[in-house]
Amino acid sequence: MNQKPENFERVMSTTLSLIANRGTENVTISGVARLSKVSRAWIYKYVGSSKEQLIREATLYIGTTVSELVDRPTAHNLEELTASLHWGNERFVENLKRYPWLPILFFRFAHSKNPIGAAIREVQSNYVQLVATELMLALPLQKPEAIQFASLYTSMRMGAAYWWTSERNKLGDSPDTFFLQKLDGLAALLS
Question: Which fold has domain 4-61?
Answer without folding.
Answer: Arc Repressor Mutant, subunit A (1.10.10)
